[in-house]
Amino acid sequence: MTDPITFILTSIIMLTMFVVLFAITDRALNHFSKEKHPFDLKFAVINGIIVMIFYYIFSRYL
Length: 62
Known about the structure:
Elements: H1 4-31, H2 41-61
Helix pairs in contact: 1-2
Keywords: Membrane, Transmembrane, Transmembrane helix
């Protein structure tokens, strides 16, 4: 197990990058969509946390 500071910094970087990539993808797809929707930050953060949880679970056991 890594030290807590490394774990927290890694988690923050992963979550930030996920939200940024999610926002870019969402805006790009929304640009070509007929129905325009606003960016949902709460949805992006919840998905990012779920992705991080699965990453930490599977990186430990695979």
